[in-house]
């Protein structure tokens, strides 16, 4: 790797001030499993001058339920989230998502904050040495559109840039389904507002803003959540499509449902049409399938990824059914 | 590295100052009584019980330091991108990837490699040999450390536990089915040893 | 040699008929023993085994090449001044350097002269233009970025079929200026048109195999150091003899005996770079730089560069098959196009020629040049054949609604003859009468409950909603084809242990342990007293795994050398021992003839009176100070026991099916695969695999099983996902890493049954045949029939991805 300066931050404030000092030329490093891969391959035209290590900040790795909220620090390790008894019991979608993320080793290193803040995986974008200076790097075009887009968006490009790279995170859809809030060094926001497509950017975070954790409201009584991932290999692989759902049933019918797909659009894709389709219905195969169809009704697959539409449809239905009983 | 050398950097907290006097004043005011700062990039690392003080550069990975500089050849570089597990070492009880860790962030840590597992006469090694749990052997130390971390945490793993734990270890020679056999046997051996230890 | 002795040696090595000199049963102790420990086990498990990538020498430089960003481009000009100025850069070796403008032998199957640093790149990622050495890999990486190149980009073609279409850009005008068709070969027998005319059904189908590769865990690399005028070379290479041959031809010629070569443990290659004609360019350039800088130089390819070499079954096939209603196949016509093969390889119908009685066969293979990396035999060059055999048989069964096992048995044969003919041949050649295929099928059917579980295609939905499928295929085993090997062995002084010597590399197949087992039982030694670590500098050329033959060639050489050594030992034990300046030493067993003696448990004993025994350690006597050269006797000590150096060597030249005429193959393999297909996502889960391998005789059963497991996992990766993807627009490789190129993980396959059959129908010693290449080569195409059985639709393009499944199902 090319050289850079390195700082161990002792507090969030120190991390913020270091980031400010470097004015966009420094990067936060948490588990490093995403960031270091990018730096090794030199995928971006620029290269960080400094890394600010936040693992040295105490108190950011907690997982605890308090005041009707599950609070998870940004440094919480995915493997710990996956096996945490409270998360497994009440926030199943998150535990399941964490458990299906990457590989055991990456889960022992990767943090929740890093997982939702990670960069896209488009293989043009990630080709070493900035071989494809595409839209997402401030360049003039998208190479995936005319190229091999088998892992790209089925719901069109992002507005206004036109990038069709998908958001790769496994935990993001779970957090969205569970209605989480993201807390940062300067604000808190609903997680649906956290993701934003920009040049070398997947979130709304400002250059010197640090995620500190997420808060998840306790699911209402009668709720169940689930996460389903479809990937090529049983381990290591990013999702081809994943889906998380939170379903509240009352009197045998669906009162509320939050459904989120990921890896199908530049941002996590809230399947609002599917939520509407299932609301007030019994949770059975036929209704779940209809919700699946509704979820992909607007899909516009590219030249190589029509299969993802079929898979997304199946996953919505399965995630819903996994919330029954 | 583009560190501004015209500025004076506080060795305790990395804050910069325009002159030496300002820096000195700051150091006295803020950091008096703190232990003396070590030279930048100096880390203390324990590998298989051996202690090292070593000067590292920020961009050096743990793999580079442990394998290339300290000469523990077991953490092998296969993918160099976190996708194969062959560079696994054990740190704080967790099996972690040395290719995706910065050495400078491992200051004060204790690390165990496959050499260390063997040195400690862990029954895994013998079980691995017995079950032919290797072909070319390049990935094997990464499996051994992963398995060791699993057994430390879970002395009685099921077949599924083992398969889940090894999900991040790639073996191109395809030795996979032999690992659970060896690990289950080593686990039984360990429990036997411990049982004996308790009785005696 | 006296003529009878000569005759005897010839017979001992005779592999044209069944092994005439089987080892008596009571002597078999370690052959077939599951408890025998691997020689390399502890070293590898503890991480102490060293590989070329681990080599660190004082003052060592690191070297890498510039690679082309374009799939087809020539360097117009190149400015390396910035790289040269970078601190820590020690040498910049350019394509226009006088020392590298001459073609050199850079390895490969035959002598393959190439420029060590080419000026034109014929695929994206090709090493060209310049090699740079610096104090660290980090600095090299930086320096390579500072090289400024003016490229003249040329038109390129990526797809083999497009490459052969008229008007396609010429992919490699330097070597093939006329067209992208390098050459084509035809093979077969009979007259296929006649066969089609006699057939009840004629089916036609096409199949594709996308580009896949070997993925060696250790990258291609090497280290060069000059010791005075003589080179010392560490190399990751499966074929030490090729490195030595090549190195000896460089720099005006270096005598073979001055070259010190180290082939350490290897992070497997499966054929890989070892076969390519510029694998050694790294060594060549390291040598030049090492001499100029006076420092050792390590070169390596990056992980991504390792992805540019491919497997030579990459291409497309067109099949036409004629059969009778009862499943008798009358004619097969296969026309195949393969991309960028490094050598001709075998046509698509070779296996049909060898192990069926199909009367009419025609195979044509055309070799097309495209702007992707070179392709070679990657475990193994028979892939096109196994692909063809599986698809032909299973398509016929599918078309006629027959059980594929019945179709296999109906057409099983030997070189166009039926099994009755084969029986007669077996009799003549002294082989047992076993019907290998029937035996394999019997075991395999039981393992997968075939009779209960096999069903008509597309008819079985499981309770989890998935479709269930069961597939079957079969073949002969070809690991007995050709090659030669030399082995030497020596009893060590002091402890009388046996060391086997051979110029070999370790690829992990554990043949070394098997050689020890053979030597131990043949010699009458304890297995722990026998050891084999490859010794490259012995010069005894040993057939290595990439050349596809271990036991069937080297096994003979080991066995023969053991028998000769034993003979020598017994002779020496009866005769007055070595003559030295200090006189001769009395015989150990003066009253015996060699026939009266034998060896067991590493000791010589008198057969009639086993209490009279002498350990081999006592027999060979001590070395050094305690040995015969000492002066103890001058002071009245007894003479220490001593015998002349005990050494033997042997060689074996395999007369194969490919060379030296037809040798009927009697041994068979059967493979079964059970799958579940998720029709919602197109996901295929392989829930069970049963491999039934008739290995003739299993010397080391654990190693055989290792090959069956390993081959299965490699095979399912190839079947399900493995594909090197290039951007169609720019020709740039998109997935040159271990995340995007997907090899199987532990959880990607259900239980694997490893059933070994020991029919003794092989042409190796003890009637054995090999195993390493069969499984990974048979498993990929087997997924097709299994999925067909599940969903009732054929998918003939590989890998069989979810996308292809959903398409076949009409869902997209
Ligand atoms: C082989 C491989 C397979 C993978 N598979 C998956 C998968 O299946 N599913 C999946 O979801 N992910 C996968 N990942 C991606 C990723 O590595 C992990 O998901 C992990 O959770 C990222 O966390 P981290 O702490 O290591 O992130 P880092 O690499 O440390 O950080 C990632 C990014 O987030 C920023 N960042 C991190 N924390 C903060 C913070 N608190 N505030 C502001 N910015 C921050 C960093 O600056 C960086 O840009 C995979 C990665 C690899 C290498
Ligand atoms: S999809 Fe986005 S990231 Fe990928 S090439 Fe197009 S613009 Fe770049
Ligand atoms: S080398 Fe570190 S994970 Fe592959
Ligand atoms: S033993 Fe060769 S890669 Fe695992």
Structure characterization notes:
The complex is a heterotrimer of chains A (325), B (200) and C (812). By secondary structure, chain A is α+β, with helices and mostly antiparallel strands. Helices cover 30% and strands 22% of the residues of chain A. Chain A starts with a strand and ends with a helix. Chain B has two domains: 3-113, Ubiquitin-like (UB roll) (Roll); 121-194, DNA polymerase, domain 1 (Orthogonal Bundle), CATH 1.10.150. In chain B, 38% of the residues lie in helices and 14% in strands. Chain B is built from seven helices and seven strands, in the order ββαββαβββααααα. Chain C has three domains: 3-30 and 481-654, Aldehyde oxidase/xanthine dehydrogenase, molybdopterin binding domain (Aldehyde Oxidoreductase, domain 4, 2-Layer Sandwich), CATH 3.30.365.10; 52-154 and 227-295, Alpha-Beta Complex (Aldehyde Oxidoreductase, domain 3), CATH 3.90.1170; 402-480 and 658-808, 2-Layer Sandwich (Aldehyde Oxidoreductase, domain 4), CATH 3.30.365. Chain C is 26% helix and 24% strand. In chain C, strand 11 (221-227) and strand 12 form a beta hairpin. The radius of gyration of chain C is 29 Å and the shape is globular. The chains are: A alpha+beta (325), B alpha+beta (200), C alpha+beta (812). Chains in contact: A-B, A-C, B-C. At the B-C interface, helix 3, helix 4 and helix 5 of B face helix 2 and helix 19 of C. The structure holds flavin-adenine dinucleotide, iron/sulfur cluster (SF4) and FE2/S2 (inorganic) cluster (2 copies). Iron/sulfur cluster binds at residues 120, 122, 124-125, 132, 134-136, 142-144, 152, 163-165 of chain A. One FE2/S2 (inorganic) cluster (FES) is lined by residues 77-80, 82-87, 97, 99 of chain B.
Record the SSE blueprint.
The complex is a heterotrimer of chains A (325), B (200) and C (812).
Chain A: E1 5-8, H1 12-22, E2 26-29, H2 35-41, E3 50-53, E4 63-66, E5 69-73, H3 78-83, H4 85-90, H5 92-100, H6 104-109, H7 112-117, H8 143-146, H9 171-177, E6 181-184, E7 188-190, E8 195-198, E9 201-203, E10 211-217, E11 223-230, E12 241-250, E13 253-262, E14 269-270, H10 272-278, H11 285-295, H12 306-322
Parallel strand pairs in A: 1-3, 2-3
Antiparallel strand pairs in A: 4-5, 5-10, 6-7, 6-10, 8-9, 11-12, 12-13, 13-14
Helix pairs in contact in A: 5-9, 10-11, 11-12
Chain B: E1 8-9, E2 16-17, H1 20-31, E3 42-47, E4 50-55, H2 62-69, E5 88-91, E6 94-97, E7 110-112, H3 114-119, H4 123-130, H5 140-153, H6 159-165, H7 178-199
Parallel strand pairs in B: 3-7
Antiparallel strand pairs in B: 1-2, 3-4, 5-6, 5-7
Helix pairs in contact in B: 4-7
Chain C: H1 3-12, H2 41-45, E1 61-67, E2 73-79, H3 81-85, E3 89-94, E4 104-105, E5 113-114, E6 120-121, E7 127-134, H4 137-145, E8 148-153, H5 160-164, E9 181-189, H6 192-198, E10 201-209, E11 221-227, E12 230-235, H7 240-249, E13 260-262, H8 281-293, E14 297-300, H9 303-306, E15 310-311, E16 315-323, E17 329-339, H10 350-355, E18 360-368, E19 375-376, H11 383-400, H12 404-411, H13 419-429, H14 436-448, H15 450-453, E20 467-476, E21 483-491, E22 498-501, H16 511-523, E23 530-532, H17 551-574, E24 579-580, E25 583-584, E26 597-600, E27 603-606, E28 609-615, H18 616-620, E29 647-654, E30 668-677, E31 684-694, H19 701-720, E32 752-757, H20 774-791, E33 797-798, H21 802-808
Parallel strand pairs in C: 1-14, 10-33, 12-13, 15-19, 17-18, 22-23, 31-32
Antiparallel strand pairs in C: 1-7, 2-6, 2-8, 3-7, 4-5, 9-18, 10-16, 11-12, 11-14, 16-17, 20-30, 21-22, 21-29, 24-25, 26-27, 27-28, 30-31
The structure holds flavin-adenine dinucleotide, iron/sulfur cluster (SF4) and FE2/S2 (inorganic) cluster (2 copies).
């Amino acid at each position: 790797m090319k050289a850079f300066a390195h700082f161990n931050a002792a507090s969030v404030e120190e991390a913020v001030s270091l980031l400010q000092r470097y004015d966009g030329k420094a990067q936060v490093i948490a588990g490093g499993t995403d960031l270091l891969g990018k730096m090794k391959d030199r995928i971006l035209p620029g290269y960080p001058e400094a890394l600010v290590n936040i693992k040295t900040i105490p108190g950011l790795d907690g997982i605890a339920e308090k005041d009707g909220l599950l609070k998870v620090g940004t440094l919480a390790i995915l493997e710990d989230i996956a096996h945490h008894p409270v998360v497994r019991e009440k926030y199943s979608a998150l535990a399941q998502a964490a458990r299906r993320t990457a590989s055991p080793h990456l889960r022992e290193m990767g943090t929740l904050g890093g997982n939702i803040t990670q960069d896209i995986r488009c293989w043009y974008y990630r080709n070493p040495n900035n071989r494809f200076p595409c839209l997402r790097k401030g360049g003039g075009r998208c190479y995936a559109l005319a190229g091999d887009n088998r892992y790209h968006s089925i719901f069109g490009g992002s507005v206004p840039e036109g990038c069709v790279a998908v958001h790769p995170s496994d935990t993001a859809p779970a957090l969205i389904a569970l209605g989480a809030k993201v807390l940062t060094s300067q604000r808190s926001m609903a997680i649906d507002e956290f993701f934003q497509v920009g040049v070398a950017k997947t979130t709304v975070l400002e250059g010197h803003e640090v995620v500190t954790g997420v808060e998840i409201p306790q699911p209402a009584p009668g709720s169940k959540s689930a996460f389903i991932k479809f990937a090529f290999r049983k381990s290591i692989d990013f999702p081809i499509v994943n889906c998380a759902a939170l379903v509240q049933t009352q009197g045998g019918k669906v009162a509320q449902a939050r459904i989120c797909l990921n890896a199908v659009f530049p941002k996590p894709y809230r399947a609002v049409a599917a939520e509407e389709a299932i609301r007030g219905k019994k949770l059975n195969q036929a209704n779940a399938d209809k919700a699946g169809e509704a979820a992909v009704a607007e899909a516009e697959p590219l030249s190589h990824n029509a299969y993802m539409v079929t898979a997304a449809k199946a996953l919505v239905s399965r995630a819903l059914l996994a919330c029954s009983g | 590295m583009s560190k501004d050398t015209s500025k004076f950097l506080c060795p305790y907290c990395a804050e910069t100052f325009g002159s030496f006097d300002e820096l000195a004043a700051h150091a006295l005011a803020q950091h008096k009584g703190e232990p003396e700062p070590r030279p930048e990039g100096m880390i203390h690392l324990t590998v298989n019980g051996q202690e090292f003080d070593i000067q590292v550069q920020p961009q050096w990975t743990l793999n580079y330091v442990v394998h290339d500089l300290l000469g523990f050849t077991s953490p092998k570089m296969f993918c160099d991108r976190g996708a194969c597990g062959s560079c696994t070492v054990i740190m704080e009880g967790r099996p972690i990837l040395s290719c995706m860790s910065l050495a400078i962030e491992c200051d004060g840590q204790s690390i165990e490699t496959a050499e260390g597992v063997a040195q400690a006469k862990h029954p895994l090694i013998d079980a691995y040999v017995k079950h032919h749990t290797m072909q070319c052997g390049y990935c094997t130390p990464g499996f051994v450390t992963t398995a060791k971390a699993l057994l430390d945490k879970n002395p009685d793993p099921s077949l599924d536990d083992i398969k889940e734990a090894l999900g991040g270890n790639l073996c191109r020679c395809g030795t996979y089915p032999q690992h659970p056999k060896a690990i289950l046997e080593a686990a039984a051996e360990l429990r036997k040893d411990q049982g004996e230890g308790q009785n005696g | 040699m006296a003529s009878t002795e000569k005759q005897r040696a010839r017979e001992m090595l005779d592999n044209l008929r069944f092994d005439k000199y089987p080892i008596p049963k009571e002597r078999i102790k370690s052959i077939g023993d599951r408890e025998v420990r691997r020689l390399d086990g502890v070293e590898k498990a503890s991480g102490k085994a060293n590989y070329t990538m681990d080599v660190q020498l004082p003052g060592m430089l690191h070297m890498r090449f510039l690679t082309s960003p374009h799939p087809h481009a020539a360097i117009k000009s190149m400015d390396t001044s910035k790289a040269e100025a970078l601190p820590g850069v020690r040498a910049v070796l350019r394509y226009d350097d006088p020392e590298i403008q001459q073609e050199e032998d850079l390895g490969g199957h035959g002598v393959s002269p190439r420029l060590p640093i080419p000026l034109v790149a014929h695929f994206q990622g090709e090493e060209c233009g310049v090699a740079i050495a610096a104090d660290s890999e980090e600095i090299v990486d930086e320096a390579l970025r500072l090289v400024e190149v003016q490229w003249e980009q040329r038109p390129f073609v990526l797809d083999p079929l497009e490459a052969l279409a008229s008007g396609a850009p010429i992919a490699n005008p330097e070597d093939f200026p006329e067209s992208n068709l390098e050459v084509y070969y035809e093979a077969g027998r009979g007259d296929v048109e006649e066969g089609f005319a006699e057939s009840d059904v004629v089916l036609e189908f096409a199949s594709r195999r996308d580009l896949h590769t070997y993925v060696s865990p250790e990258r291609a690399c090497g280290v060069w150091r000059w010791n005075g005028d003589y080179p010392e070379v560490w190399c990751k290479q499966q074929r030490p003899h090729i490195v030595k041959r090549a190195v000896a031809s460089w720099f005006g010629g270096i005598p073979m005996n001055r070259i010190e070569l180290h082939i350490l443990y290897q992070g497997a290659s499966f054929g890989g770079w070892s076969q390519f004609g510029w694998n050694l360019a790294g060594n060549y350039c390291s040598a030049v730089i090492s001499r100029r800088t006076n420092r050792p130089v390590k070169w390596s390819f990056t992980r991504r560069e390792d992805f540019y070499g491919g497997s030579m079954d990459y291409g497309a096939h067109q099949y036409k098959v004629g059969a009778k209603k009862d499943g008798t196949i009358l004619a097969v016509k296969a026309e195949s196009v393969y991309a960028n093969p490094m050598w001709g390889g075998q046509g698509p119908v070779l296996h049909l020629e060898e192990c069926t009685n199909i009367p009419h066969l025609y195979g044509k293979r055309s070799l097309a040049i495209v702007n992707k990396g070179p392709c070679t035999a990657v475990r193994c060059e028979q892939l096109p054949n196994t692909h063809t055999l599986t698809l032909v048989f299973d398509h016929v069964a599918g078309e006629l609604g027959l059980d594929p096992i019945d179709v296999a048995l109906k057409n099983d044969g030997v070189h166009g003859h039926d099994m009755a003919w084969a029986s007669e041949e077996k009799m003549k050649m002294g082989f047992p009468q076993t019907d290998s295929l029937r035996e394999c099928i019997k075991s395999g059917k039981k393992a997968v409950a075939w009779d209960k579980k096999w069903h008509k295609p597309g008819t079985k939905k499981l309770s989890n909603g998935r479709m269930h499928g069961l597939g079957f295929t079969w073949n002969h085993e070809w690991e007995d084809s050709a090659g030669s090997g030399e082995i030497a062995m020596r009893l060590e002084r002091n402890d009388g242990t046996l060391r086997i010597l051979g110029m070999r590399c370790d690829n992990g197949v554990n043949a070394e342990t098997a050689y020890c087992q053979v030597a131990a039982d043949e010699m009458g030694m304890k297995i722990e007293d026998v050891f084999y670590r490859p010794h490259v500098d012995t010069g005894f050329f040993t057939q290595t795994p990439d050349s596809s033959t271990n036991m069937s060639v080297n096994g003979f050489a080991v066995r023969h050398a053991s028998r000769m050594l034993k003979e020598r030992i017994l002779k020496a034990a009866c005769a007055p021992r070595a003559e030295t300046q200090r006189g001769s030493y009395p015989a150990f067993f003066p009253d015996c003839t060699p026939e009266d003696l034998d060896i067991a448990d590493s000791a010589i004993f008198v057969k009639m009176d086993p209490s009279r025994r002498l350990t081999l350690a006592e027999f060979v006597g001590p070395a050094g100070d305690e040995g015969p050269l000492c002066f103890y006797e001058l002071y009245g000590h007894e003479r220490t026991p001593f015998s002349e150096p005990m050494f033997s060597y042997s060689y074996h030249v395999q007369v194969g099916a490919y060379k030296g005429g037809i040798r009927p193959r009697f041994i068979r393999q059967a493979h079964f695969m059970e799958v579940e297909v998720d029709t919602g996502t197109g996901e295929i889960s392989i829930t069970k695999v049963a491999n039934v391998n008739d290995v003739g005789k299993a010397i080391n059963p654990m190693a055989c099983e290792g090959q069956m497991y390993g081959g299965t996992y490699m095979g399912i990766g190839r079947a399900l996902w493995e594909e090197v993807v290039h951007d169609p627009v720019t020709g740039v490789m998109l997935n040159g890493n271990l995340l995007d190129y997907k090899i199987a993980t532990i959880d990607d396959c259900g239980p694997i049954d490893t059933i070994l059959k020991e029919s003794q129908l092989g042409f190796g010693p003890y009637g054995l045949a090999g195993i390493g290449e069969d499984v990974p080569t048979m498993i990929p195409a087997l997924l097709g029939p299994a999925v067909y059985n599940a969903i009732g639709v054929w998918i003939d393009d590989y890998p069989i991805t979810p996308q292809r499944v959903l398409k076949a199902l009409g869902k997209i």
